[in-house]
Write a structure and sequence with these properties.
Layout (H helix, E strand, L loop, with lengths): L4 H16 L8 E2 L6 E5 L6 E6 L12 H14 L7 H4 L3 H14 L3 E5 L2 H12 L5 E5 L4 H8 L4 E5 L4 H10 L6 E6 L11 H10 L3 E5 L14 H4 L8 E5 L10 E5 L1 H10 L1 H4 L6 H16 L2 H20 L10 E5 L3 H13 L2 E2 L2 E2 L10 E5 L6 H17 L7 H8 L2
Parallel strand pairs: 3-12, 5-6, 5-7, 7-8, 8-9
Antiparallel strand pairs: 1-2, 2-3, 4-10, 9-10, 11-14, 13-14
Helix pairs in contact: 2-12, 4-12, 5-6, 5-10, 7-8, 13-15
């Protein structure tokens, strides 16, 4: 056998080490629709427990919205369950084109191309538009899917310090001889919750003749006055060369993603992006649901406005309680713990109190930056947030971290 006992024992030892370190990731099974209140089986085989979900990407609370579900059912009946094909063969329906046009209008771009996920969009875009004569310059905290897409491309890769515009300018000057330059950033950084300085980045890219790509997965639908995204907040709608984003978070929560931007760049992806060319098309039921989501967002900013208020309320409560938080003004509010085992233990204690919030640690975040990333939703009511805050305070007292600085927490628990 190719898979020998020696190989098996090697992996068993690695897994044992993860378990002994107290950072083993156990699956949790949700037995209800995605919402603020969910029923969870954890660990596997345990009785179901009703908990408040404080770590979902369901920012606008639309994953189980009755109008979205109705639209999905109608899409299923009208266009079937799946396409059984890739787009360029026989996998494109009229509703796929309709969604591309609607996303283009929503984001304020020139054209849009659908992908099975935003991870696929990020995996395909760089290889499709760049060659080894070009350079990619990325923020050091960009999302893992952007990193994977960068790795698949033959262009030179360089980085700049997180949100450091002076360092970015140095890198643009350093690579002035390259055929094409592209700057790569998240709009909202998924682990920290801060936003990119897109107005300054656009100015630098114009000055140094560089393109700008922004992943808006944690921004589309709720950042900016009407929820268009970080580029709306920063006043640069129409000035971003490429936007990648997902329909799996605020825009319905199912699946699918896209590349949107300059017409020629989108067309290059249609011709050359491998995840587009060799992956099945987004299911019609998902397309129908996303179309309804965009219709809901066009009619009112009520959900986006409620989310903004909820996030401010939650951040204020945690700050006053004495937790160490990452600065920001988005619905992503990381509670910093710095120690991986502490993050796991605190997460379990919260679960026992009826709060579902997961610990994050290396390699998901940098070494020594372990945290519980809380994510607020328009689906949360104040009573959800108050109950969650009470639980956080209770377990914070249990682990003696309230009012403590980073240095004090590290001295108690280590990095």
């Amino acid at each position: 056998m190719a898979y020998s006992e020696r190989v098996s024992n090697l992996y068993k030892e690695q897994l044992k080490g993860i378990q002994e370190a107290g950072i083993f990731k156990q699956e949790r099974f949700i037995h209800s629709p995605q919402a603020a209140d969910i029923e969870v089986e954890y660990p596997a085989g345990a009785s179901l427990k009703k908990v408040i979900n404080m770590c979902s990407n369901n920012y606008l609370g639309l994953s189980s919205h009755p109008d979205v579900l109705k639209a999905a059912h109608e899409g299923l009946d009208a266009r079937g369950y799946g396409m059984s094909s890739v787009r360029f063969i026989c996998g494109t329906q009229d509703i796929h084109r309709e969604l591309e046009r609607n996303v283009t209008a929503f984001l304020g771009t020139e054209d849009t191309l659908l992908f099975p996920s935003c991870m696929d969009a990020n995996a395909g875009v760089f290889e499709a538009i760049l060659t080894k004569e070009d350079v990619m310059i990325s923020d050091r905290l960009v999302h893992a899917s952007l990193i994977d897409g960068i790795r698949l491309c033959s262009a030179i890769h360089d980085t700049y310090k997180h949100s450091d515009m002076g360092h970015l300018e140095e890198k643009l000057q350093l690579h002035s001889d390259k055929r094409l330059k592209i700057v790569i950033t998240d709009g909202v950084f998924s682990m920290d919750g801060d936003t990119a300085k897109l107005d300054l980045m656009v100015s630098l890219c114009e000055k140094y003749d560089a393109m700008l790509l922004v992943d808006e997965s944690h921004a589309s639908g709720f950042i900016g006055k009407t929820g268009r995204g970080t580029h709306e907040r920063c006043g640069v709608v129409g000035k971003i060369d490429i936007i990648t984003t997902t329909f799996g978070k605020a825009l319905g929560g199912a699946s699918g993603g896209c590349v949107s931007g300059r017409k020629e760049l989108v067309e290059m992806c249609r011709q050359k992006a491998r995840p587009y060319l060799f992956s099945n098309t987004i299911a019609p039921v998902v397309v129908a649901g996303v179309l309804k989501v965009l219709e809901i967002l066009a009619a009112s900013t009520e959900r986006r406005d409620k989310l903004e208020k909820n996030a401010a309320y939650w951040r204020k409560g945690l700050t006053e309680a004495g937790f160490v938080l990452k600065e920001g003004d988005t619905p992503i509010v990381p509670v910093m713990l710095f120690n991986a085992k502490l993050a796991q233990d605190l997460s379990k204690a919260l679960y026992d109190e009826g709060i579902y919030a997961i610990g994050f640690f290396f390699p998901v975040v940098p070494q020594g930056q372990a945290r519980i990333r809380t994510q607020i939703s328009a689906g949360h009511e104040i009573h959800h947030l108050d109950k969650a805050l009470s639980a956080f305070i209770k377990v914070g007292k249990k682990f003696n971290i309230l009012g403590k600085t980073k240095q004090e927490i590290v001295e108690m628990y280590g990095l």
